[in-house]
Description:
Blueprint: E1 7-9, E2 14-16, H1 23-29, H2 45-48, E3 58-64, E4 76-82, H3 86-99, E5 103-106, E6 112-114, E7 119-125, E8 133-136, E9 139-143, H4 148-157, E10 160-161, H5 173-179, E11 192-198, E12 204-208, H6 209-212, E13 227-234, E14 236-237, H7 240-257, H8 273-278, H9 282-288, E15 295-296, E16 299-301, E17 309-311, H10 317-335, E18 344-346, E19 352-354
Parallel strand pairs: 4-7, 5-7, 6-18
Antiparallel strand pairs: 1-2, 3-4, 8-9, 9-13, 10-14, 11-12, 11-13, 15-16, 16-17, 18-19
Bound molecules: flavin-adenine dinucleotide.
Flavin-adenine dinucleotide binds next to β5, α5 and β13.
Amino acid sequence: MLRTGFYLSSDCGILYPELSGPANLNSELKLIEPMSVSVLKNSYRVQLAELAGQQVGRLLFNEPLAAHTSWQIGGPADLLVEPTSVAHVAAVVGFVRRHGIPLLVIGQGTNLLFDDAGMRGVVLRLGDNLSGSEISGNRILAEAGAWVPGLARRAMQAGLAGLEHTIGIPGTLGGLVLMNGGSQRRGIGDNVRRVWVVDREGRERTLTREDCHFSYRHSALQGTGAVVVKAELELERREPKQIRRAMLEDLRERRRKFPRKQPNCGSVFLSTSAMHASVGPPGKIIEEAGLKGTRIGQAEVSPQHANFILNLGGATSQDVLSLIAHIRRVVFERIGFDLCCEVRYVNTVGELMPAHLASG
Ligand SMILES: Cc1cc2nc3c(=O)[nH]c(=O)nc-3n(C[C@H](O)[C@H](O)[C@H](O)COP(=O)(O)OP(=O)(O)OC[C@H]3O[C@@H](n4cnc5c(N)ncnc54)[C@H](O)[C@@H]3O)c2cc1C
């Protein structure tokens, strides 16, 4: 049975607030109550049929989630909704709240592992339909579905620097803000000025950067059920050529280091500065443990970069979870370090957790 509530990972010393949320924002955005596993077998298709008569965007019933994640893994969701306005988002959030139906928000699914059994409830996907952006002075106001590399390129063309480190991150702005994603030891939180959300009651709220409490690959929005719908980024003026050079350099490095042919989810394990200082980055540790090329089912530790797990074709969520468990066990035995996942596993009732907590 999966655990709910706070996840205190004694091995990693990190408090994961996925299902409960941090105190500072809880009073504002409220906690998600742990879901009973008894709903696991239920399907919400009957209640959800009611949504079909409402204007909330594109509705896809029984939609395979494998089609919406970069790992290409995951069974069907009862319903996947693609809203085209903030009002749609608020209407869906309000509807599921009233009916007690599980809800999960996704962008490009580049940091998610769905279960082979899919998800009972609603997946709200913010993508192309909510991806507008406008530039004013040294600020960009963009909708959450904006594709991050496209946004970074737009900033570069306008002579705005600060998003160079995001040029190779294939997710949406909403996912990036929630994860405080970034590279080169940076996070998008450095540039966020304001974030607009629909809270779990379906109300629109505006948050400042301070409200979001960004830290390494973390924001206070995690675990609150808030849907990011828009964000304002503050950037610096610089020569487009100079920005472009930095972006090309980043992309060149990624092409050199990262596997690109088979479906993957980017870096599976978290890399922190403390870890770098003591044992090195996860890819190096996993490689040193002799695990490059290790396979379970159709999931493989990339022979090119050991912090990537590849779907060789038809990998199941269980293949990936078993491989994660195996890597952690071997690394701990040989190097004495507990690895924690950056990638999130989604269980069948839409609860999110760092994948190693589901891998046993
Ligand atoms: C090849 C590759 C390279 C990558 N490189 C990097 C990297 O350099 N740095 C890095 O940080 N990440 C990297 N990633 C991981 C991933 O791209 C980022 O975490 C990205 O920010 C996730 O965005 P997404 O839209 O795909 O979010 P998803 O994977 O769809 O969701 C991720 C989380 O965000 C939540 N979420 C998504 N949208 C919203 C929203 N609008 N409102 C509220 N919550 C939301 C989801 O519920 C989930 O908890 C990489 C992935 C791949 C496949």
